[in-house]
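Batch job 17 of 40 flagged for manual review because the log was empty.
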Amino acid sequence: MTPLQFEARYQADWEELQRLLHRLQRHERVPEPVSAERLASLYRRACEQLALARARAYPTHIIERLNQLTSDAHQVIYQQRELGLGRLRRLIGRDFPCVVRAHSAYVWLATAVFAVPMVTLGLLVYLNPDLILSIVDPRTAAAFEAMYSDTAKSIGRLDNAERDWAMFGFYIRHNIGIGFQCFASGLFAGVGTLFFLAFNGAYIGGIAGYLTERGLSSTFYSFVVTHGAFELTAIVLTGAAGLRLGHALVAPGPRTRREALILAAREAIVIVYGAVGLFLIAAAIEAFWSSARWIPLPLKYGVAACCWIGVLGYLWRQGRHAR
């Protein structure tokens, strides 16, 4: 589809959305109230069309128009500050995956910055285990070996570790702390986000390579593979949200940097909300499922496969055809 065909095909939807936004922003009294469902439907379509226009590198005027339109719609919709189960249901069932898809460029960049150091360090440490000492000190390396040894009472923990509920709280704090670093450091022109994504990727990869070389791959991968579907995805998404902030500061476009940052924060916070949910799920799985020795490995890997397919499928398809 050429840019002209794209513009002609969706012009009517854009104009309708613009009219609805104008009526709401001006608080006009009209014979018929604005349909919230229609407004939300047009907004979701515009988000997907914006993602498509970016992916196909359409002319700047089309991308800028869609960016302004979706930004205005987002501001109007979320000014309502709706609370309760209905709002949470819409966030999970529609807004979160739609906003992630609309910011797919940031998601793919965050994925690359996180995954490349992880794979690279994993291979290097596997081939030369002494490199682990450039990542952690000898005592920490020995602790990791003990946590994933065949004699450990619970996988991924030291023998003197707290019980499941205490570890659940620890994992929540730890995971959300990493996510906050990746997101908030985007305020440093995105450089902080790039650093924390690469650092965490390198750290995870280095530990994985070391434990694999030590012959502890069965316990290590059976521990991380299930909750990793949620935790690693959330890290990447908080990084993508941080990159959105950084891009707004570096290239604000026609807006002032303050205006661009406010707009970026409104878009990115939806991703952060969803990522926090993923972190909570990851913490629960890590505390009560991943560490359990009584669960057969085939069952763990089977559940892990379902989790990965479910998370990726949810982000790819959920809310795509909602009305």
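Reviewer: the log was empty due to a logging misconfiguration, but the result itself is present. The CA atoms of residues 126 and 210 lie 6 Å apart. Unflagging and moving on to job 18.
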